Amino acid sequence: MTDAGPLGADDTTFLAAVRSGDPARFARMTERHRRELQVHCYRMLANYEDAQDLTQETFLRAWNKRETFQGHAALRTWLYRIATNACLDFLEKRNDRTPVPSGLTEFGSEVLYLQPYPDHMLPEESVVARETIELAFIVAVQHLPPRQRAVFILRDVLGWPATKAAGALELSVASVTSALQRARVTMRGQLPGRRLDWRSPAAHELSPGERAVVQSYIDAHERNDLHKLTSLLRDDLHFVMLPEAGTSSVTARDAVDGWVSGGLFQPGHDDWRGVTTMVNHTPAAALYLRTPGDPNHRLSAIAVLNIVDGKIAELTGFDATGKPWLGLPETL
């Protein structure tokens, strides 16, 4: 696999680091790519913790295969190739990393292993398009077979030419082109109509309207105001609580009925505090619950809110306990 044009200064320096056999020097050169490689692995796997592990696996493989770097491809290309194939090897060995039936005709499957991606861990040096990191896109990608998934991400997300993607995956250009065409059809079938453009600009801050809705969502919890909470939801709300199976609902009424039957705003689940945040370039509310006898409100869940025309159209809840990588305080 080769890249057009001469090697850059970084690639020449890295080639010297490879030839020196100095692990510290090698690590310094590769470490700068950690965050973008982790985002790449996350798109492939939809799970933050898996992406962390596979990024580390990428660096281990890179060190073990350092002699294969001859300067014919850029360092970044070489590392992406290793990361992609590490993810494919992982998926080949796991039978629990595919969507499962949800029992709902409108949303035929659930991705139970899905985890949010904290914005503070996104690459700082480059723009990550919102549509290619938000949850709806990540879920849709999971419906692609692994190799199609890799082709789609390399070609349509990273913008690699077909020859470069083919070299990374050891496929023919014709195979890559065919896989991309099939992947695009699947993606358009999975994504809601308003999300068919996956190259829109990133949003690094909440808009005033989004911030107001998130704050109202938090206020409703803090005031135990079920009526206010319901008023924030679109009638055709899609809700799911992960990693629990069978929690999907496709109307606001069904979602609220489920929350009430689960004890929301009842004794033991009625002392809430919240913090506005962002994950996956998407508005989110971190919710803290104080249980009887505990002096502190403890991080309980994070609700990721897709807001359309001032109302919550999709709400994906995640268990937030034991996840320090979210970058949220454990107590308030």
Automatic annotation (TrEMBL):
| RNA polymerase sigma-70 region domain residues | 31-95
User: Which Pfam family would be a valid example here?
Assistant: Sigma70_r2
InterPro entries, alphabetically? NTF2-like_dom_sf, RNA_pol_sigma-70-like, RNA_pol_sigma-70_dom, RNA_pol_sigma-G_actinobac, RNA_pol_sigma70_ECF_CS, RNA_pol_sigma70_r2, RNA_pol_sigma70_r4_t2, RNA_pol_sigma_r2
Domain RNA polymerase sigma factor 70 region 4 type: start-end pairs: 137-186
Keywords attached to this entry: DNA-binding, Sigma factor, Transcription, Transcription regulation
Note the PROSITE patterns from the entry: SIGMA70_ECF
Q: Does the keyword Transcription regulation apply?
A: yes
Give the protein family. Belongs to the sigma-70 factor family. ECF subfamily.
Question: What is the annotated quaternary arrangement, including any partners?
Answer: Interacts transiently with the RNA polymerase catalytic core formed by RpoA, RpoB, RpoC and RpoZ (2 alpha, 1 beta, 1 beta' and 1 omega subunit) to form the RNA polymerase holoenzyme that can initiate transcription.
Q: Entry's PANTHER family?
A: ECF RNA POLYMERASE SIGMA FACTOR SIGG, RNA POLYMERASE ECF-TYPE SIGMA FACTO
Annotated protein name in UniProt: RNA polymerase sigma factor
Species of provenance: Actinoplanes couchii
